[in-house]
Amino acid sequence: MYRRLERGQGNVLAYEIGASVTEEEAREILGQLREAIGEHGRIRLLVRMEGWPENATAAFTERLRFAKDHLGDIDRYAVVGDHQLLESLTEAADKVVGMELRHFDPAEEEAAWAWVGES
């Protein structure tokens, strides 16, 4: 399950990701991101996650293709969640990707919104 958060506006897209995301849902999200990149050029993301998704490999090949094609089109990526693995992976990925990537605890969500929206 995922839900696009209405608070995201313009080139800022925001999602809440539940405990389970299907391949179809993962493809829908990637399609929305592609549309936003086509419209705005560069985008920013905020993803709120509850735990660690059961099917974290959903549409894995599609996600890899998206990353290869669009990694440079994402300026900032805020991940909000309290799962320890999520924090560790975010910190590791930040060191190797060409975007600003930051983890925030759920209590820091307002700070995440502020950071994603900064100029």
Protein traits:
STAS/SEC14 domain-containing protein, 41% helix, alpha/beta, 5-stranded mixed sheet, 5 strands, 119 residues, STAS_dom_sf
Helices, strands, pairings?
Layout lengths: L1 E3 L7 E6 L5 H18 L2 E7 L10 H11 L3 E7 L3 H11 L5 E5 L4 H9 L2
Parallel strand pairs: 2-3, 3-4, 4-5
Antiparallel strand pairs: 1-2
Helix pairs in contact: 1-2
> How would you sum up the global shape?
globular
Question: Could you report the average pLDDT, rounded to the nearest whole number?
Answer: 82
CATH topology: Transcription Regulator spoIIAA
Number of helical runs?
4
Beta content: 15-25%
Radius of gyration of CA atoms, rounded to a whole number: 13 Å
Main beta-sheet strand count, sense and barrel state: 5 strands, mixed
Can you give a write-up of this model?
The chain has 4 helices and 5 strands; from the N terminus they run ββαβαβαβα. By secondary structure, the chain is of the alpha/beta class. The protein has a single domain, classed as Transcription Regulator spoIIAA, CATH 3.30.750. The chain has a 5-stranded mixed sheet with strand order 1-2-3-4-5, sandwiched between helices. β1 (2-4) and β2 form a beta hairpin. The longest helix is centred in the N-terminal third of the chain and has 18 residues, at 23-40. The model has no long low-confidence stretch (mean pLDDT 82).
Would you kindly provide a brief summary of this structure?
The chain has 119 residues and is of the alpha/beta class. The chain has helices at residues 23-40, 60-70, 84-94, 109-117, and strands at residues 2-4, 12-17, 43-49, 74-80, 100-104.
